[in-house]
């Protein structure tokens, strides 16, 4: 009941004219970046960080949340019409959606993706209203050792899930942890990794890190592989669905929501796992098995619902514990730090208008996105023809301009482009960016909590496992670390005849 009252207060914040405009701007930008291949919500939020210093925090996060949800919506358009997922979570949609489009059913594919996203987003946001306060009540009892164990779990899970290789994920995490050490140690006052540069004594601004690794690095990577052939876009009319399409879609929408929300809330859960699971479930349950692989509408409806439900699930650990479980959530955590805010139990106590205004705006944004995506699908399809050189040159230009404006320092520009080259090299050699950003953001927090725990235990390291919560979290982290090795060992030991 208390959550319901707070949500009503949140609607009072979200429904002001100013915040409605920011929500509309966010969902429009999110849909735009979701449609354009190679530009995701994480890059967009990173690009906007430098220019939102003067925007009130509630308005900024309403816009960022709109970008996040809009990116999930827009990614389906690229997958269906171009067979090029704008986000990794849209890969499954491309399998069946583009086949539907090639069969002349692009309108139906876009409609089931948009309506399914609306249904899943609305239900998942309602679950967020219930789940986040419950997690906050649980997190109030956390001690320093529990927060350290939670950070370790986030490190391991994100490195394992957001990368094709655990080793590469951990390597990326190590890079992020090293960058997070730059600056003056808060306890000893010693300068660390500053290379004698005075501007580095305060550390590297997280905005510059996020923009450099995500935006500049991605722009350089795409430019290095740019081909000038025009994209083969399937023509589309107004999105619509017949009675048979509705009958085949509504159950996958609900099942996708049931998979997406809880998995998205797990550390390292992300959106990729529930979309793959949803596709597998729908393929097993459908009466139209012969259509899978050639354009089954269930293969679009379920994964798209799971994709959008996972976005709401991601906000549960982000808001209640301060733990990002996706790349976009990591950038949003950086945005909280930009405003001097730390997500967690205290955020709900000290800034309820911001938290509940942001949650309420998700309901409003879902309605806006449905209106934007159903009738305007042909317009979004035309955006796929924007020349890529103009697009990515603009990204690099605005990234440099925004980061220079943070401190009016040429050193920040040099750091930005050095980190951009690092981001390009990481992409080139298959190292994921998200674990590095999570290491930068959570590394200092994990270090502080580790020192506090050891101080309380008078240097006895067993204090880290005395708490039942910490012991369970560290055990799960170890299992997540060993799982790929065990899988490989079992696969090697089992004879090929048995595996077949």
Automatic annotation (TrEMBL):
<feature type="transmembrane region" description="Helical">
    <location>
        <begin position="315"/>
        <end position="336"/>
    </location>
</feature>
<feature type="transmembrane region" description="Helical">
    <location>
        <begin position="356"/>
        <end position="377"/>
    </location>
</feature>
<keyword id="KW-1133">Transmembrane helix</keyword>
<feature type="transmembrane region" description="Helical">
    <location>
        <begin position="147"/>
        <end position="163"/>
    </location>
</feature>
<feature type="transmembrane region" description="Helical">
    <location>
        <begin position="389"/>
        <end position="407"/>
    </location>
</feature>
<dbReference type="InterPro" id="IPR002823">
    <property type="entry name" value="DUF112_TM"/>
</dbReference>
<keyword id="KW-0472">Membrane</keyword>
<feature type="transmembrane region" description="Helical">
    <location>
        <begin position="463"/>
        <end position="486"/>
    </location>
</feature>
<feature type="transmembrane region" description="Helical">
    <location>
        <begin position="20"/>
        <end position="39"/>
    </location>
</feature>
<feature type="transmembrane region" description="Helical">
    <location>
        <begin position="45"/>
        <end position="69"/>
    </location>
</feature>
<feature type="transmembrane region" description="Helical">
    <location>
        <begin position="413"/>
        <end position="442"/>
    </location>
</feature>
<feature type="transmembrane region" description="Helical">
    <location>
        <begin position="206"/>
        <end position="223"/>
    </location>
</feature>
<feature type="transmembrane region" description="Helical">
    <location>
        <begin position="170"/>
        <end position="186"/>
    </location>
</feature>
<dbReference type="Pfam" id="PF01970">
    <property type="entry name" value="TctA"/>
</dbReference>
<protein>
    <submittedName>
        <fullName>Tripartite tricarboxylate transporter permease</fullName>
    </submittedName>
</protein>
<keyword id="KW-0812">Transmembrane</keyword>
<feature type="domain" description="DUF112">
    <location>
        <begin position="20"/>
        <end position="438"/>
    </location>
</feature>
<feature type="transmembrane region" description="Helical">
    <location>
        <begin position="109"/>
        <end position="135"/>
    </location>
</feature>
